[in-house]
Amino acid sequence: MFYKAYNQNAMWFVQKIKRYNVTVKYIKNIQQEVFSIGFPVTYLNTLNLKPFTAQNIDNTASNLCCYTITQQPIKTTNYISWCANLPRPNAQPIQTIKPYTNIRTQLQNFNMAIKTPIEAFEFLIQLKKML
Prior knowledge:
- The protein is an alpha+beta fold and about 130 residues long.
- The protein is about 35% helix and about 20% strand.
- It has helices at about 5-15, 40-45, 75-85, 105-110, 115-130, and strands at about 1-5, 25, 30-40, 55, 65-70.
- The strands form two sheets. Strands 1-3-2 form a three-stranded antiparallel beta sheet. A two-stranded antiparallel sheet has the order 4-5.
- A hairpin with a 4-residue loop joins strand 2 and strand 3 (about 30-40).
- About 5% of the residues are buried.
- The mean pLDDT is about 75.
């Protein structure tokens, strides 16, 4: 069985406890990236969380266990900076326009099916600069 920590909690765990690899996943329903780490239940038992005053919070679901770490505030600016520095999966470079090619060729070669809306918008900006 594994525990998972998400977003600010994942950041706190990685910075204060152990440097786990953080998974970055875009969730379509909430239109946001979610940052998470996973670790085995046995690892939690080996930790000394007393300095961080871990509190076990009971939940309605019998198989769900939730811990809250108190007295360790997380600054929003630190969290935003931490998120920005995490590597993203399948990060593809934006197709750049070479000065010796024309706009029609660039449009024909641009594969919109695999691009994000932001990448498509940046591509249009580059095309506009060629005019």
